[in-house]
Amino acid sequence: MINLDLATLIGLISGFLFIIIGVSTGSGNVMSFLHPASILIVLGGTIAATFVSFPIKKVLSTFKVVKNVFVNKTFSPNEIIQQIIRLANVARKEGLLALEEAAEDIDDEFLKKGILLIVDGTDPELVRNILETELAFLEERHSQGQGIFEAMGTYSPAFGMIGTLIGLISMLRDISDTSSIGPNMSTALITTFYGTLFANLIFLPISNKLKGKSKEEIILKELMVEGLLSIQAGENPRIIEEKLKTFLAPDVRKTLNNEPEREEA
What is the Cβ-side half-sphere exposure of residue 17, based on CA atoms within 13 angstroms? Predict the structure, then answer.
């Protein structure tokens, strides 16, 4: 299930809102902080440096995953555990080959792949290796996206400083005109403001959000690996349930349905 990530929206909207209120309270003129040339230097420079640092394909694909920051793919540990227990019951009653038909109802491609490996009679150690390798590459792909936004969070303040230097150079060039010193100095500093703002309100928080969501997904898939291997080993569904619960934080365990489908006596 996919739903809106309100935390991201609340954070961004409130962040900009508090800054606008702060600026209004301090100077009373929000429009004086709008400076297109500074925005161009910071955003344009940051994006350009990102393309220099990373392959174009990875940068473009990373921009596509930004949508993941604004939505939540709900991975329900309860549903996954119950699904694994149902599969364990099928395996114990009808044999591992019966899992092939049961796998048709599984939406998660990772879990489905594991079931089909078991049905094919793959050695348990090989099943673990295949699934863990897939997990490792999934984590690597996720880390690339996080790394790009982290890099943008590093470049942004740097380009803010570059804009400030440009402004200071302009100021020194026209230093004989004392009336231009104030505006030039203001222009110089506002670029640093943009660089710091974009880094700390957009790029670095996006990187952290992607890290958190990736970690949740990886833990759930590790839970699936353990469940699949337990099914293949013919373990009791009740034992499998208890084993899988150990992957979850105590507060999440409390939210689990206490009466999942278990093996009938």
Answer: 6
User: Which alpha helices (H) appear in 120-249, and where do they start and end?
Assistant: 124-173, 178-198, 204-232, 237-245
Sequential DSSP letters for 226-243: HHHHHHHTT--HHHHHHH
* Contacts for 131 with CB less than 8 Å, ≥ 6 apart: 110, 113, 114, 117, 221, 224, 225, 228
pLDDT in tens, 217-263: 899 999 999 999 999 998 988 899 888 888 877 776 766 655 444 44
Token pair 């570059």 is found at 162
Among the listed residues 3, 11, 17, 13, the one whose alpha carbon sits nearest the alpha carbon of residue 67 = 3
pTM of the model: 0.81
Q: Are 106 and 112 in contact (CB under 8 A)?
A: yes
Using the structure block, give the residue that is written with the tokens 């364990």: 88
Q: Which residue has the tokens 């440009």?
A: 166
Q: Determine the Cα angle at 201 with ends 35 and 59, to 5°.
A: 90
**CA nearest neighbour of 96 among 113, 68, 115, 77:** 115
Count of CB atoms within 10 A of residue 9's CB? Answer: 12
Burial of 78 (0-12, 13-18, 19+ CB in 10 A): middle
